[in-house]
């Protein structure tokens, strides 16, 4: 009997019979049941572009919004293929029992293709929060997926340092749970978030808490927003990788460039002194080099 109900539900969805679908769901038909070829009734509804039917099926089984058929196609794929996108917002914003939207699911899987379909399908899906106050970017960060994190940052830069229900930002999650990923994955993902920091804090505080990967990330942070002398003092020394940020910092502030140099290893500082002396001699009687160019030349002398 249950199988017959699901078969009838699929048939009703195929022809857009909303009344029949409503009756079958009330009789116990399951909207999350796949047929023999891996299709859901929701997939059929999206093929014909029936918005009311899609909403009805999503209300009955919200998690089906992110379910793919045997060919890897979701409901949104079918709606997009037929240029029948009236149901797209309902699909993109469908919430399951955990408060997850399809974008949460896709971000956790790192499914960039599906994420690209979901992001423009509704208003601000990247800012939707689940029951634990997590946005999709928290899922991507937890997996150290740089491509997914960057895609979500482009769509909703304001979530870069949003805190979940446990008070953790995406950067916390990358650095805290990155032990399950390679160092390259962790650093690349964390770098996306550090670059998105509008100000030094809270990124600096988070990096100071998680020292394993921070030595290379400090350079990415200090290259952008200005730091106070107190903030520079909080960065552990020596921090040899800070040399990468010298051109950007020197262009911004000679005082900050001096504080940066103070965090380098003694060998690096000796190289810089020798290079700076040579540059000064070369410029005697001639025009001075721009700060950015001087910084780039000096940085070249560092290992």
UniProtKB/TrEMBL annotation:
It comes from the Eukaryota. ANK repeats lie at residues 98-130. The keyword Protein biosynthesis does not apply. Pfam families: Ank_2. Keywords: ANK repeat, Repeat. The keyword Nuclease does not apply. InterPro entries: Ankyrin_rpt (IPR002110), Ankyrin_rpt-contain_sf (IPR036770). PANTHER family: ANKYRIN REPEAT AND PROTEIN KINASE DOMAIN-CONTAINING PROTEIN (PTHR24198), ANKYRIN REPEAT-CONTAINING PROTEIN-RELATED (PTHR24198:SF165). This is Uncharacterized protein. It comes from Chlorella variabilis (Green alga).
């Amino acid at each position: 009997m249950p199988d017959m109900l699901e078969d009838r539900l699929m048939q009703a969805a195929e022809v857009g019979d909303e009344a029949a679908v409503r009756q079958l769901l009330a009789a116990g038909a399951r909207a999350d049941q796949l047929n023999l070829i891996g299709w859901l009734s929701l997939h059929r509804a999206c093929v014909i572009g029936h918005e009311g039917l899609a909403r009805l099926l999503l209300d009955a089984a919200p998690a089906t919004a992110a379910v793919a058929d045997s060919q890897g196609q979701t409901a949104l794929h079918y709606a997009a293929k037929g240029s029948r996108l009236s149901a797209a917002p309902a699909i993109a914003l469908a919430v399951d029992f955990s408060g997850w939207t399809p974008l949460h699911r896709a971000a956790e899987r790192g499914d960039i293709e599906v994420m690209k379909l979901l992001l423009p399908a509704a208003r601000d899906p990247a800012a939707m929060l689940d029951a634990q106050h997590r946005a999709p970017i928290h899922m991507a960060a937890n997996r150290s997926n740089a491509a997914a994190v960057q895609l979500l940052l482009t769509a909703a830069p304001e979530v870069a340092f949003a805190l979940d229900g446990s008070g953790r930002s995406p950067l916390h999650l990358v650095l805290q749970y990155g032990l399950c990923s390679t160092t390259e994955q962790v650093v690349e993902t964390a770098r996306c978030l550090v670059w998105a920091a509008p100000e030094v804090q809270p990124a600096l505080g988070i990096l100071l808490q998680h020292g394993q990967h921070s030595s290379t990330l400090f350079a990415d942070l200090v290259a952008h927003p200005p730091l106070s002398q107190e903030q520079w003092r909080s960065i552990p020394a020596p921090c040899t990788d800070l040399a990468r940020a010298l051109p950007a910092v020197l262009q911004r502030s000679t005082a900050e460039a001096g504080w940066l140099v103070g965090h380098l290893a003694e060998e690096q500082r000796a190289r810089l002194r020798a290079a700076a002396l040579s540059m000064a001699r070369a410029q005697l009687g001639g025009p001075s080099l721009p700060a950015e160019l001087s910084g780039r030349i000096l940085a070249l002398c560092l290992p």
